[in-house]
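Input:
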Amino acid sequence: MIEEADPVLPREMAGPLHLATPLLGHVLAETLDGGQCFRWNRTPDQGWCGISGGCAATLVEIRGALHARIDAGTSAQLTEHLADDRDWIELAARLPGPTDPHIDRCRRHFPGLRILRQPIGEALLCFLCSATKQIVQIKQMAETLARRFGRELAPGRHALPSWPQLAHVSEAELRDCKLGFRARHVRAVAEFLESHEGWLEETADLPYPAAKERLVTLPGVGEKVADCVLLFGAGKLEAFPVDVWILRAMQRHYGLVDLPLRHVAQFGRAHFGPFAGLAQQYLFAWERLQPRDKRAKRLS
DNA sequence: ATCCAGGTATGCA
DNA sequence: TGCATACCTGGA
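Output:
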């Protein structure tokens, strides 16, 4: 992707990142900045710098190969975040085949698209903030929260605040981070988690249906957010979050017109099976390519 | 200016 | 169940 100029990675600190599944170009971009996580940003030289948990890293393509620099934390944390222990090509191949031409098309356009592994607390925080907001705005909220309440991992690079840290933050301070009505939810969840230590981690260990049942009892967490938290924060690939984009995709490509959100979610899980969450990410990526016209808008 | 954006909670047929 | 409405705020 980057041919002529070698990016500005200090050579002694950067190294090639060997991944089981290649991750380059627009697939890398869609993975890091496709709405599943909100903490990766472009560097001036077309690389990526991001933070997940206690790991801050910079990624860049040099003559068609991915290189990484660890700015804080360990390279093991980075590979964990990139979920490279799974074979994403093979998982995609297990989604519906020739009987589903649309998924086939998505798969060919984004080969190796993957679901990143995020700390569950971070996924919960970000998706609590996601209600009726665009990705850019969510990223901005996350950045402000991190800068203001999170631990500094490297100069100017802050981790998201943990829930125990958030427990000491007032609703007014949260609103000051531009969270709007979401501030009340974050505040309430912080209070709940403060008096229920280990609750989130226990939830992550439950099977998908039970875990979801628990999550939706949290204020501000509905079906969609719960599915996002379980998919991106607990590796439950059968979770199938349905938002307006997916609704649009299911109408356009699967003929599910005027169906309640609930039914669309039900259909998705039945049709796509144990890796419905990966299918969802493919559908989302494809839909984001489409220019938005009046017809598409009206659907929501 | 006016509208809308990766939803959720609530109230009412 | 199904549908309508309020909820914050910044950017187009």
